[in-house]
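Checklist before submission:
- one chain only
- standard amino acids only
- sequence pasted in full

Submission:
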Amino acid sequence: MNTTLIEIYTHSGEGYNPFFIKDNWQVAQLNYMPEQDVFGIEKMDKHRQTDEVFILLKGAAVLIAAEEHTTGFAFQCIHMIPGVTYNIPVNVWHNIAMKKDAELIIVEKSNTHLGDFVYKSLSQQEKSELNKQIRDTLNQSM
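Returned file contents:
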C-alpha cells in the first residue's frame, strides 16, 4: 500500500502556521497567541487580494469585522461556532479574538502572509468599544 497518497498536516505550537501552500491558495492554522487574546486586540487588518475563510476547530473565538469611518471603526462581532465556515471578503478590516483554547483553520490565496496585508492600530476609544462588544458577544452565547 502506498502511504504517500494522504498528506497529513498539523500545528500544535502557538500562533500562525501556513502548512499547505499550493496552486495559488493556502491552508494555515492559527492557534491562540497573546496578540489574539479576547481582550488584547490592538489592531485591525485587511487583505487587498483575497477573501479569507475561517473555521473554528475548537475553543472559543470571536470573529471581528469593521467598517472604517471618519470617526473610527464600527465593529461587527460574531461568536464563532466550531465547524462553521466564515468568510471575510477582500478589503474588509478584520481580526480574531481568541481564548487560550482556540484553534482555527484559515484558507486564503497563497503567500498572503508574506505581504498582502494592511494593518491599522486601534485608538484607546476603539479598543474600549471593541472589548465591550467582544464581552457582550461572548456573554450572549452562554
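Reviewer check: The chain has one helix and ten strands.
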